[in-house]
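Protocol step 4 of 6.
Sequence for Ribosomal RNA small subunit methyltransferase I (Streptomyces tendae) entered exactly as in the expression construct, tag removed. Do not edit the line below.
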Amino acid sequence: MTGTLVLAGTPIGDVQDAPPRLAAELAGADVVAAEDTRRLRRLTQALGVAPAGRVVSYFEGNESARTPELVEELAGGARVLLVTDAGMPSVSDPGYRLVAAAVERGVRVTAVPGPSAVLTALALSGLPVDRFCFEGFLPRKAGERLTRLREVAEERRTLVYFEAPHRLDDTLAAMAEVFGTDRRAAVCRELTKTYEEVKRGGLGELAAWAGEGVRGEITVVVEGAPEKGPEEVGAEELVRRVRVREEAGERRKEAIAAVAAQVGVPKREVFDAVVAAKNAANDKANDKAKDAAKNVGI
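Step 5 output, C-alpha cells:
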C-alpha cells in the first residue's frame, strides 16, 4: 500500500492559531519535510511536540531534487508531512511539485487546514469577497511588473497579492499607474502578530504612505475593476474585445454576443462595429494596393 502525503497549514503569526491536528501529525509522521528546519524546530518547541520521524529540508532550492526521494518514501508506505514557514504549502510556497508527483503515482494526498494570509487579508480588507483571484508575488523588474498588472487591468474580481516590504512602494505606485490612483485597496501587514496593521485607501494614497517605509510580512488586496457603462466603451474597444475572444478560440458570433452582454449594449451595435472595422481595413488594403500599382506603372 502507498503512504499518505499530508499538507499542513502553519501559523502566519500567532502560534496559538496552529490547528490542533498539527501537533499530532508532527509527532506521528514518518517524514517531516520543512521549508526551514530551524523554524520548524521553534514551532515544535512552542507546541510542545517532538517529531518522531525523519526531518528533511524542502525548499525552493532543493524542491526539484528532493521530490523524487519523497515520492519514493510515499510509494513505500510512508506518511510524509509537508510544512512551510507560514500558511498553506503550495500557495506561493514549496509543495506543488510534490503534490503533482504524488498524485501521478497514485498516492493519497490530504491536508490539515490552517491559517491563510490570503483569506485573512481578504476578510479584513473591507473589499468585496464574493469573487476574488490570488496573483501571488509580482515580478521584481519594473517592466515585467507593469506587464503583469496590465493583464488584469479589467479584472472585476478582487485581487490579492503578496509583496516584500522593500518593494511595496514601487508596487503600489505601479498599481496606481495601471489601475488608477483612486482604486480602493488594503495593505495588510504582520497579520495576527503583535503589530498587525491594515491600511486602507486609494492606491495613490497608499503608495505615498508606503514611500515612508513599511516593515513586516505584506499582503495587498485590490478592488476589482468597475464595469464600464455603454457610454464608456466606444466602437474601437468593442472591436478589440471581440478580437481578443476570437484569438482565444471563440467563434465570432459567440464573441459578439459575449461582448454585448458584458458591456450592456445590443448585439447589433457590436456586430456593426466589427463589420465597420473590417470594411475600413479592407478599404485601406485596397488603397495601398492601388498606390503600389501606380508606383510600378500598372
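Step 6, annotate. The chain has a mean pLDDT of 92.
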